[in-house]
Structure formats: structure tokens, C-alpha cells
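Quick bug: Conjugative relaxase-like TrwC/TraI family protein output formatted oddly.
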Amino acid sequence: MLRVVSHQSAAAARQYYAEGLKREDYYSEGQEVAGKWYGKAAERLGLSGGVTPEAFAALVENRHPTTGERLTPRTKADRRVGYDINFHAPKSLSVLHALTGDDDILRLFRSAVQETMTEMEERAGARVRRSGAAVNRTTGNLAWAEFVHFTARPVGGIPDPHLHVHCFTFNATFDGVEQRWKAAQFGDIKKEAPYSEAAFHARLTAKLADIGYGIRRTKAGWEIEGIPQSVIDKFSRRTAQIEQFAEEKGIKDAKSKDGLGAATREGKRHGMTYTDLLAAWGVRLTEAEKVIISKVRFDRDGNRPAEKITASLAVDYATEKMFARNSVVEQRRLVAEALRYGVGQITPEQVWRELSRREMVVGKVKDTVLCTSLDVLAEEVALINFVRSGRGMCAAINKGGIHFGNEKLSAEQKGAVRHILGSTDQVIAIRGGAGVGKTTLMKEAAEQIEASGRRVFAFAPSAVASRETLQESGFVGANTVAHLLLNKNLQRQTRGQVIWIDEAGLLGAREMWELMQVAGSSTRIILTGDSGQHAPVARGDAFRLLQKYAGLKIAEVTEIRRQEGEVYKKAVAALSRGDLPNAFMSLDKLGAIIEVADDGERYRALAADYMELSRKGSPPLVVSPTHGESAKVTEAIREAKRGAGKLGDERSYIRLHNLQWESADKKRLENYREGQVIQFHQNAQGIRRGEIFSVTGRAENGITLVRSSTGREMPLPIKFAERFQVFEEREIRVGKGEQIRITRNGKSANDRRLNNGNVFTVEKIKKNGDIVLSNGAELDRNHGHFTYGYCQTSHSSQSKSVRDVLVAQSEDSFVASSREQFYVSVSRGKESIRIYTDSRLGLQEAVGNTATRQSALELAGISKRDISSMNSDLPNKQWREVVQSRKAEGEARSHVKNLLDARKQDVSKKDADMSWRQYVEMRRGLVSADGRSRSKGHPQGTEKKSVNLANKRRSFLRPTEQKTSTKEKMQAGRETNKKSPEVEKKPAPKAEKGEAKQATNPRQNRFVNAYKSAVSHFKEKTGWDKAAAPAKSANDNQQKKAAPAPTKTAAQGLAKPVQQTQAKPKALQQSNVSKVADHAAKQKAVEASKATQQAAKVAQEVKQKAATPPPPTPRK
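Here's what came back:
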């Protein structure tokens, strides 16, 4: 574990040094922990060796430890004095070191800490002003004091072994540019703490493995192989104490648990020695456990992992996991995930090298390095090109007049219906915010479509939105998108018909692409949704991408029809526009924001309002951004119902909590624990859909074993990880009158349909434990897939419309707050809205953040124009060239700027000896020192106007117009034909069968062909690999003319470029670079042709002389 804790007060820091850093959690009188100085800044300050109280105090007071002068410019009362960066060993390593005294463990632990701190030091920076904006400048130096501790806080007066190091890092760094000390910027260091933690553990475990210790991977990290779990538990009493306290207080989220350390901390034990501790620890162990620990210490040979993990495998795992839900990820988080997976076997350096070999697109946004893969990029481009290729390819559904059956439709709704019926595009889109009547216009348009002879199949991402909202609106048979993608029979039924997707904003890029594949070329697709609400859980905001890149013609509906009160309606309208000030102003007019600082009082007020609204009609919808706050709200409401006699006698049940593992997580055998539940949602090689297994343990070979309800035991088939989910059993108490929510699609015991997200009231609990719900469905006592239904997350509430809404959004949920989340939460109600928070200002600031995610296309810098000129059947390496060209442009701009700084030259200065543009082109090898373009055949001594650098941009996809006039082009063509009549363009080669097929059906197998490329042919044609080499000078041409006639072999060699230039490229828009290369190749061809003709002429003359006998000599 690695933690970064800030310290705001100099006085508190001095006390922390005296009572915390210098002293262990046990100590005898006069016993202290010796600290040591590290860091480049410490060396500059003259600090080395042991830490003294005077030097420590000087630095926290912002004074130079030697001169006593003020160090950084500002010394404020609330100045942050430094950060305590602390590194922690896992419990098994702490116990092994404490009980065996292996000095190698401590040496390697400190070495890993020092290497990681040095890497973090390289990221240190200071604030500077550039063009009026504050930016970070990397300084690469820090000063920190290291203190090694060996125990945790006492429990019952006795501390447990806990090896950890405190690196107190001071808030000062030396700016080498300005030659002065400044306050250090720790933003990047704090943000990248997960990477630093993973790098630290990777270094430590690699070092331990080198001296023979085995490393056992766990879900939370790692432990020393051979140390029993029973030993780990016996010496983890502090963790158990915090967990027990959290359970008593109802605290479940990890962040809140982290703050419980101080609340449960005992004072340090006085008068104990290390010998006393060893005796106390030894009493806890059995003789067998002591033998095992001793064996681990002294028998270190052969402790090698059964599964060999390379850097390549680790990066494969990290990319699969990280890109499952995001198109773009932070590069260091990707590396951290790989390091955690390969802990004990790989190092940070190996992972970075492996990542550099991968085809990754990398970009930087606000000092954060982001990356994506070409696979993700291919997915997005293929999706967009499919939609683009369907524009204008279909007949309008209704070309004549439209007679609306529902006269209550607004003008916007009627316009949207006309847009659908009159569109000639295969994919049609309707964009509308929350409560604008999208479902109403859907019903009108569907009736018109079916009247024309086509059938409408309606789908939505969630079960509630499809099987409830849509079916209740008249769309019989409406189902989930997932059901469509799995049901081949249903796919056949939709061919040639219309697929309508509601809440399309919740579809990821992969799902949307698969949907397009189902549609093929004959099925129309209609998308309705709002990219201003929640984004999909899966990667890729597909609906937003299509609007931005695919050129969809969209009909927009903006008039809000759900909210009945005018002020409430104005608040929702402002939120839909992202206008937070006016939205909060309207909410204040409603008295909707209820600010109560105390948690208990605030939740009791919400529960009282819940009970009041429930008495007036149906219970209100209660929404909170996080599960942690939802649990607190639920407990308050249940307590209020219990006090009002609305909750009957309770019985205990086991509910199945979905662990929400990604496919990559499910493939890691070390993640599984005995007692976990596996349930299949698809058939898989002898396993039927819905079958349940329990994890029973692990075999000797490490394979996880599971047992079915019938007693059948088998290895877990992880190759079918996509087809099952992993659950954890948790206790839940339910009584009559309880409100519960179904958490998995399925059937009840009496064959009633149950949708994920359905909320019901418990009407009765039978003697055998079966639960009777308000809709008549009966749940078997072992059903398991339900939880309390009093409070939902905003994501699960999207698509719902209720009378009253209560929103619980305190500081505990601010981290999960966003503009989109708040908009969804507030807009669910028709009549009333109440928001409960502990800080109104904090709430407004938190919801000012957007949850919009960056796409791979946006990171790569690819524009709509780029995509329109790309051949999607040949994209992969071509895309790589595009991305590289974007990088090259950025690097060129940076290079030019650096040269400008070095030369101190004004680029706009026109009377310079050489223009800046001419200089850059000369550096590229395109222009000689006299400013004349060699690539266009201008010899030295000829006159030529200045070169326009704007037409020399390295871009493979953006063709730019040449500045050459039409007259000059025609003249150049005539001269070329005169000089080289033999050089003629060959006719374009005939298309192969596969190419002809693609031309007639360009969308067929588009995604499969996405990895084919014309880059080799492209490079051959443009000579891109040789573009950096300077062209031959005019002197070379003159030497060729003066040279003797070449031999036949030489003539053939000179003629070789002629045949190269006759190659016909594939259909690809030509860039400036390729045009310049073509022009140069033509000039070379002309010269080669002339040389060939001259050689042939000389050879012919020689041949004629040899064949003709000399004339007879006249006789005298």
C-alpha cells in the first residue's frame, strides 16, 4: 500500500515528527527511530545522513536549514508544509521479517522505497506563468526524510508486526530556470499514486523473488508464498478492529473506512522492548505455524510460480481490463494494472518497454498522458463509416402527406415524425432531453411506419426501459438490445424491417457496432436518446460519436412536457443546457435544496418526507449517486417505517451481490474465494443458462473448483468468462411491507416475469420463507437476486418517470457527481423535487464537472474530414500513418519553437538572408541553401519565387491545393511529353474479384477487413521512407550529362526508376508529400529516359561501325 497524506500546519508537523515519526508504536524511554535524508533538493540544501529536529523544524517553517533564511517566496499561516508518503508491506512479509529477523527483507524493502521515491521525484514540479496562464514546470528535485517503522498501532496494548516507511516530503523544490526555491507541485505525484504503488510492489517482489522467496498473487495484491492465511489473520487485528467498527456504524465504502483509523486508534505503548513483543507474538502461534514460518525463511529454493507471466501477458491483461469500459485511459494506470497482474515476475522497466512496442495512440491532456489502442480506434471508425455509407441509400418511408393520429403532438414532435418518415438515410436519429415526449412521438411514428407495410421492433438497453416503459406505451414485444444481439431468430425477423432503439445514449460503441451488423444493408435503424444524460457503462459514447462524426441528420425535441410546475420545468430546462447558475436559482425558488450538516439529522429528514409522500400516494423515487450513501438512506427509511409500524417481523435471507467483475478479472484464478457463487447467463459446454455453482476451493495445480446444486464438482471453465457472473453472499433482513428491488432478469417461482430494476412491496412472507410480492409474483426463499428498493443510483433511475423525487447527494457522493448525473436525478419527477445535502455550494461545484468521456478518435486528433477520405477497408496501418502524421505535426511545431528560441529570429522578418520557411524546407531536404526547391527540379542558378511552407504539411489524409497555376501545369506537362515520349502512364490495373465485390458492397466484412492496409504500396509510390534524404543536386545532373555513354547494364539501372513511377496506387487521396514525390520521380524518369536514349544511340553507332567493312584502299 502507498498513501500520500498532506500536512497543513508547521506546528502539527513538528508534533508529528516528535511523537509519530521518531517513535515506534511501542518504545522504551529514550528509544527513537533514526531518520535519514534523501533527494536531490536535500543535497542542494546540504542535508545528508541523519535527520535532526532543528533541520526538520526549519523546513516545515519554510526556512533554509543552514542559513535560516526564508526558503520559498510565500510563508502563509495555512501553508501546506509537506506530504507524508508512506509505503506498507503486506502482512505476510511483515510477520516473516518480525519473527525471523531476515535483514535481507528490510534491505530490499528500503531499496524499493528509494527507487520509487526517486521516480516520483522526477515528476516534481513548480508553478510558473506562461502567457498569463499558470502551468507546471518540471524541476525533478525534492527533499524527504525517511523513517522506518516495524509495527502497527496497538490493539489491546500489543501492536502487531507491520513493516512500513514514512517519507516526509517537504513543500520546496529548486527551479533551475529561475534559480530559486519554490513551493513544490504535488498534483501529478498524488494523481499517479496508484502507479507508484504498483511500481513499488513490482520492484519489491522482483527483489524478493531473486533471493528465493515465492510470491502468491491475491485479489488485493500479494503475499509471501507459504505463510498460512491463519497466521496473516492472527496478526491483522488492527484491520479487523476497523472493519468491526465500520460494521457497527454501517460504513461500507472504502474511503469512509480509511478515515476510521484515528477514531479507533489506541495510544502508543510505553516501556515495551522488542523482546517483549516477540514473546507476545509467539504465544499466538501454534507449533505447526512456527515450523512453517521457519521453513519459508530457510528453505527458499524452488519457490517459483507455476504460471509464468511475461510483460507481454501482463500488458494484454491490462488492455483487456482497462479498455472494457473506457476508450481512452491514463497511460500510467494502464501500466499499474499490468504491474499488479505480474507482481513478483515483472518490473516497471519491462512493462514500459513492452508498451512501447505496442501500437498505441498516445496524447497529453492537461499534463496527463492518455492512450488508446488501434483496436478501439478501428471500432469507432468502422461504426462511423457504416452510418456514413447508409446516407441517402434508402427510399423514404412516406413520401406523401402525413395524417397524424395524435393531434396533441407539439410542432417539434410532428417535425420529428416527418423527419423519420421522409429520411432516405439507413440510420435516423432523434435527439431529445429528459421528459420531452420522445416515447409519445415514437408511438405516432411507429404507427405510420407499420401502415406503410414495415414492422417496427422496439428495443432499449435496460430491461425496465424496454419491457416496462416501452411495452406500457404500446410497443408489444419490446425487449433489451442484449436480447436482440443474442437471439438469431429475432435477428432474422428484423431483416428488411425497422429497428428502433430508445435510450440510445446508453449503448457503447461495441454494442452499437454489433447492432449495425445485425441490420446489414436492408434494415432501417432509428435511434432516440440524449447524449446529455448518463453515458454507457461500456466503452465508447456511441450516440455522441455518431452525432459528431457520422453526419447524422438529427431532429431535435426540446420542449419539456414531464414537469407540471413552471419553475420546476425551468430548472430542468436549464440543466439540459448545462446552465447551472439558472438551474440552482430555480431550485432555490422551489425551496428544493435542503441543507443539513449532520448526517443523521439529514437522513432522518429525508425519511420523514418519504413517509409523508407515501401516505399521499405511491412512494417517491429516492436517488443517490453512490451505493454508500444509498445504504445510509435505506437504513433511515427502514427505521422510520419500523417506528410507524409499517414494517412487519423480519426474517433473514441470503442475497447475491454482483461483484461486477470484468472478463479479465474473471480469468484470474486468485480472485476467487471459497463460498462465492457463479451463475451462467448463457449456455456453455454442458452447462445450462441459469445454472448456479459455488466455489469450493482450489486444487493443487491452482485451478479453482466449483460445485453445482446437484453436487457435481468441476474446474471453473474460465474460457467461458463472458458467459457467467460472480456473486458474493450477503445477509439481508426482510419483513412484510418491505420495498425490494429485483437485481437480475428471470422468472419467479410461479412463472412471473421479473425484470432487473423492478421495485415491489412485500405483501406476505410464507411459513417456508417464500416471499409474495405486490404484483403477485412469489420469490423462492433461495432466490437471492434482490436487495432493498428504497434508494437507487441515478444511472438505474434513467428512463423512469414518477410523481415525486428525493435526491440524497452529500459530500460523500461528490466524487461521483457530475452535470449528467444531476440532470438525470432532478428530471425524474413530475410534481416535486427535494435535494438533501450538507453543502449547497459544494454540491453546485461538484455537479459542474462533466462525465463526458474522450473517444479514441478525439485523442488521435482525427477529424470528420479525415474519416471521409479514409478507405475503411484498408484502415489499420493507414490510421497508424494518420496518427503518426498528427504526432509529426505536433513535434514539428515544437521543434520550430525550440529553434526559434535558440535563434531568436522573427519569423515574420522579410529582409532576412534566408526566410524561416526556406530554412525549414532546407532542413527537410526539399530546398537548397539558395531557397530553390530541388524536389521540383530547379537547378542552382535559376530563379524561383519563395516557397510556401503551408503546402508542405505532413498529412496523409488532408489534400491541400498546390500553388502552381493551371498554365504552369500545362506547360510542365508539354515539356515532359517532349523530353520523354517513352514515359507514358500505364492504364489502371483491373480490380481483383475481391476488390470488385467490395466496390459493389463496401460495407460487407468492413470490420474484418479493418486490419488490411495499403501502406506498403503507399510508401513505394510516394517514396516516404526516403523522403528525408536530400534529392540529387543540379551538379549531379550536369556530371551525368558530361559522363561517357553508359553501358547496357548501367542504362538498365538508370531506367529502373521509370518503371517504379508507372506503378498504379490504390484509391487513396494524395497528400502534398506524395505529389512532391511524384513530381521528383517524373523528373528522374525524364533524366533516365534521356540517358537511356543517349546510351542506345552510342551503342547503335558502335554496332554499325563494327558491321560495316572499311572501304578498299586504292591502288597506286
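Actually, after a second look the formatting is fine. The first strand starts at residue 2 and ends at 7. Closing.
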